[in-house]
Specification:
CATH topology of one domain: Rossmann fold
Structural class: alpha+beta
Strand order of the largest sheet: 14-26-25-24-15-22-23
Helix content: 40-55%
Strand content: 15-25%
Largest sheet: 7 strands, mixed
Radius of gyration: 33 Å
Shape: elongated
Number of helices: 23
CATH superfamily of one domain: HAD superfamily/HAD-like
């Protein structure tokens, strides 16, 4: 079974990873995933062990982070994000830092007096008492290697060798860095909180002449709901009465409202702008669009990218190794040449530099920012893994019908001979009036009159023959007419389905029925090719239709007449032929695309019209019907990964340089402070740019 625990007040990424690792050691826990951005710990546990596991997690959390409260996610409001508590925490931190800085300045003015040590100590304890207490508790519990211990050792050591002002400044800057880091995390978390605003509060259910307000979770499929202007649509539904315009920007990223008339489908979470409507509920709340979107975004940061996993492993070994090096740096020279405060000073610099905060927080924050930026544009990316795969994309494979084309058949061309177009449609309608084939239905939608009654005979694989008013009418493929002795039938190359029509053995004309290419599909393919990405189209359609569509779009490669297992085989062949460092992305929308979406390195579902199975199987979901947004997703992923690489390289390079200089006695504690707090703030600020990527 699976349970999710909400970690109220969790603001330390390093501590979050320690809680996860310790929880996973529980014998009843199979797997543990920490979603730091959503403050959630997901656990897969043995049946019946939930109470014991929760008690153990609470115990672990109390030891590592005493201020964090652990509750089952349904018991606490996991979407509130502790805004009130956060505000009071920030005010308290600001007050401490200001008070400490004021006293520190007084200490600098009176540095020659007998009271300077006590003034500096007062400043130090005001800003750093909580760090000292936490460090002491962790040492007693046998967990010394955390940032509180490092800061305590470095600053107390500075006082011991007479560097009072440096000890105070290190603690002030550390607390200042922690505050800004928390603000950055909370700001990113607010993007989740703002997204939660699309969650509807109530649904107005109509029972006869009365309307009852109930929670959306209690509404059943088939119920009629009333949505007033200004209200959110609470569930996925179909309009049964009235017309309006709806704002879908929170779901699709599209700023222009769209009209909704009777018979139109509406997604939950969009806002009714103008008219009162009644609608029939199509899905339960748990299966609705708004619920799926919120789950996708909330759980995205739990799926860690390779770079995040690397940083987690790196941080686990980095701090203990640097602490050991600091001890050796102080002890070995003293044993060789005698005591010198410079050796201790160099070791203290090592301790200050050894905090891995810049890496631990900036990398997941970058991915979360990119995911948030993509969701604001109607693209849901399911975590850092998916974002890395999209960033490394070298080949994009498109399904044709419903992805590059509209998926709805329409009459696109009429070629008549010896009769008018209207007469040709009249003949075709007589033959096709009883058929349920999509091509026949497209003809009937185009025909404005009422066809005469006819005796209709269907000829399998060919078409139909109709007898009406002494006339014999044929409507079907070319073979049908040839087999019935019709002559002078022209060869026509078409991307669509051709319905040849003949009357009394004489060729009358042809009607082309096509699944039209989406307006921006050509743009999508062109953008991908310009970015150096190979494009491939797969379809179950016939070769002639596929060839014309491929030529129109300009795809590099295409394969036709494929069944679902054939598409999987093609994807596997494309992946095996691709360069190892390049990933293959498949884009599809239908239920039969689910196996291919799962087999590709990254699957992208066209969620605006896509099936639930495709959305579940995909690594990313495009909420609109625009394939060109795939390039937007790839661009955001590439830029986000670039920011991650920048943070890793910058942080490691600065820390390595200061460590070397400290070992040689060439770096001051100010340089060490920059390598810790300064690098952390710069990395976090850089990570925040990911939210603004266009």
């Amino acid at each position: 079974m699976k349970i999710t625990l909400y970690m109220k007040g969790l603001d330390c990424a390093n501590c979050a990873e320690k809680i996860r690792a310790a929880s996973e050691k529980n014998p009843f826990v199979k797997t543990a995933e920490m979603n730091f951005m959503a403050k959630k710990l997901g656990l897969e546990i043995a049946d019946g062990s939930d109470e014991a596991v929760i008690r153990e997690v609470k115990k672990i959390t109390a030891e590592l982070e005493p201020d964090v409260e652990v509750v089952l996610s349904e018991q606490g409001n996991s979407h509130s994000h502790d805004h009130g508590e956060d505000s009071s925490d920030i005010k308290r931190d600001v007050a401490k830092i200001i008070a400490s800085v004021v006293i520190f300045i007084i200490g600098l003015v009176l540095h020659d007096s007998d009271y300077s040590l006590w003034i500096f100590l007062a400043s130090y304890f005001i800003v750093g008492l909580d760090v000292l207490v936490t460090a002491g508790k962790n040492i007693i519990k046998g967990r010394p290697f955390d940032e509180c211990f490092l800061m305590t050792a470095a600053t107390v050591g500075a006082f011991c060798i007479g560097e009072y002002h440096e000890g105070v400044v290190v603690m002030i800057l550390y607390q200042l860095g922690e505050m800004f880091q928390s603000l950055a995390v909370r700001r990113s978390r607010n993007s989740i909180a703002s997204l939660m605003d699309i969650r509807p509060d109530v649904a107005n259910v109509k029972h006869g002449d009365t309307i009852e307000q109930v929670a959306p979770e209690l509404v059943n499929v088939g119920d009629i709901i009333v949505v007033k202007p200004g209200e959110k649509v609470p569930l996925d539904c179909v309009v049964t009465l009235g017309k309006t315009t709806v704002d879908t920007s929170a779901l699709t990223g599209e700023s222009v409202p769209r009209e909704a008339n009777e018979g139109d489908s509406l997604m939950s979470g969009c806002v009714n702008l103008t008219g009162l409507i009644e609608a029939r509920v199509e899905k339960e709340f748990g299966e609705s669009t708004v619920t799926k979107i919120l789950e996708l975004v909330e759980n995205a940061s739990a799926k860690k990218a390779k770079s995040e996993q690397f940083i987690t492993r790196f941080a686990r070994w980095y701090t203990p190794c640097v602490v050991i090096a600091a001890v050796l740096l102080a002890v070995v020279p003293i044993l060789v040449s005698g005591f010198s405060s410079q050796y201790v000073y160099n070791a203290l610099n090592f301790l200050v530099v050894s905090c891995p905060c810049a890496l631990v927080i900036s990398v997941p924050l970058s991915f979360f920012g990119g995911i948030g930026g993509a969701s604001a544009r109607g693209i849901l990316i399911k975590g850092g893994i998916a974002m890395e795969q999209l960033a490394e994309c070298g080949t994009v494979v498109f399904d044709k019908t419903g992805t590059l084309t509209d998926g709805s058949f329409e009459v696109t061309k009429v070629i008549s001979e010896k009769c008018t177009e209207e007469q040709l449609f009249s003949l075709a309608a007589i033959a096709e009036q009883a058929s349920t084939h999509p091509a026949a239905m497209a003809v009937m939608r185009k025909f404005s009159g009422t066809p005469v009654k006819a005796e209709i005979t269907e000829i399998a694989g060919r078409g139909v023959c109709a007898a009406a008013d002494g006339r014999t009418i044929l409507a079907g493929n070319r073979l049908l007419l040839e087999e019935q002795g019709v002559r002078s039938i022209p060869e026509i190359k078409s991307a669509g389905t051709l319905i040849y029509v003949a009357e009394n053995g004489t060729y009358a004309g042809v009607i082309e029925i096509s699944d039209s290419v989406k307006p921006d599909a050509e743009k999508a393919v062109a953008e991908l090719k310009n970015a150096g990405i190979k494009t491939v189209m797969l379809t179950g359609d016939r070769r002639s239709a596929a060839e014309i569509t491929a030529e129109k779009l300009g795809v590099d490669e295409w394969h036709a007449e494929l069944l679902p297992d054939g598409k999987v085989a093609e994807i596997e062949e494309i992946i095996s032929a691709s360069h190892q460092k390049k990933k293959t992305v498949f884009v599809g929308d239908g239920i039969n695309d689910a196996p291919v979406l799962m087999r590709a390195d990254a699957g992208v579902a066209m969620g605006g019209i896509g099936s639930d199975a495709a959305i579940e199987a995909a690594d990313a979901v495009i909420m609109t019907d625009e394939p060109s947004k795939l390039m937007t997703a790839i661009r955001i992923s590439r830029k986000t990964k670039g920011i991650v690489v920048q943070n890793i390289v910058f942080s490691l390079a600065v820390k390595a340089a200061v460590l070397v200089l400290s070992a040689l006695g060439l770096a001051t504690m100010w340089a060490a402070v920059f390598a810790d707090v300064g690098v952390c703030l710069i990395a976090v600020a850089n990570a925040m740019r990911a939210r603004k990527i266009q």
